[in-house]
Amino acid sequence: MLWKEPRYAWILLGYLWVIGFVSSIGRFLIAYYQPELSEAFHMTRSWIGFAWSANLLLGAIASIIGGWMMDRYGVKLVMMISSVLMVGGTLIILYATNGIGFFLGYGVVFGLAGISGSTANYVLTLQWFSYHRAKAILLLQSSGSIGIAILTPLFVQYQTLLDWKIGYASMLTFGFLTIFTTYFIIRENRPPSDKEIQPKSMPSERVPIRQRWHQLRAYASNPIIIVVWLALFSCGFHMGTVEMNLMAIHQSTHVHETMMATSLSVLGILEIGGALVFAFLLDRYHRIRLLALLYGIRCLAFLFLFLQWQASPLLFSILFGVTYLSAVPGAMLVAGEALSASYRSVALNTSLFILFHQLGGMLSGMIGGAVFDVFHSYQPLVLINLGLAGVTCVGYFLLDKRAAVSSLQKEMNP
């Protein structure tokens, strides 16, 4: 035992963290090398955005299938299938000569590789950790951000030696290794009680169609749910813009490479620091008010990005970085509290919330490249992000005000 957990749990955590770290190469390459990829595959940036959107859509669908497969065949098999798909997609990209090949490799096969995704991390963490689950999940979430923070200055500093082909070749090598190491390293720790619980032990109740319709209307008209949907869509749109187009935005405004590398490293570091700070605050203070503040900070971040000052890249990275990883968990907590009072199971709604987040990312990926192709500038895209952050901030503020009024009325009329 080590810190009250099995030693293998920490070995597993390290292995999964390394996978997440190396996987961030793919995020970096698609963001940083858009001009080179466009030229190499004879495609427009809007086509790259279309491939990004397809990757997110197929990844969302594949993760649902992957979760179903994990319950029946185990996490190890699904992770190995994901590694095989990653190798296949990388090979297609390396040997393709046109945009169709890139779309097939990155958009389709890489998307299907999301069959494992974060689901495997979550399942294995729950199985092996009892006292440090939250810390383990946070560490796994930080792997990609740390990867971006380290890889960006590395590739910029040695750009004469490193290019997108070297990056994908590294992913190919690591993918082959992962197939074999996963087979020997991954072990599951399913409790015996899981096998004893059978679905047939749960009584089945038929709900009248009219009652279901009323429940659906009440659900869809709940102000908290509406704002959470908007917040997750906005967060997904912001995520798509930052991961897909931020480096291209800096390149289009002729930001110096040193400033670009510094700002992106700061972004990656503050993603982790901001997540820790907001995780502490969300457990102790009014969540809706904090989320309104969070999106207010994002408004300032995109305003600085739009103004194109000399320090705009760094200011954006600081302000957006501290909010990057906290919006989704915060929204989930708010929605969960709202649903728990009226519905039997909050977990059934999680996939719908994540879908709104993915839709935002898909739309951002599709619009970003098209905006540049039409306007030869990313300023309209930045304005859309600014508007979404502003509307979401107002939505959370109105929810907070509504909750304060309701609380006051209860005190006056006990």
Automatic annotation (TrEMBL):
InterPro entries listed in its UniProt record: MFS (IPR011701), MFS_dom (IPR020846), MFS_trans_sf (IPR036259), Proton-linked_MCT (IPR050327)
Main location: membrane
Membrane-topology descriptor: Multi-pass membrane protein
Highest taxon in the source lineage: Bacteria
Annotated signal peptide: none
GO cellular component: plasma membrane
One Pfam family hit: MFS_1
UniProt keyword list: Membrane, Transmembrane, Transmembrane helix, Transport
Transport in keyword set: yes
Subcellular location: Cell membrane
Transmembrane regions: 12-34, 46-65, 77-97, 103-124, 136-156, 168-186, 219-239, 259-281, 288-308, 314-334, 346-372, 378-399
Residue ranges constituting the Major facilitator superfamily (MFS) profile domain according to the UniProt record: 12-404
GO terms of molecular function: transmembrane transporter activity
Name of the protein in its database record: Major facilitator superfamily (MFS) profile domain-containing protein
Taxonomic path: Bacteria, Bacillati, Bacillota, Bacilli, Bacillales
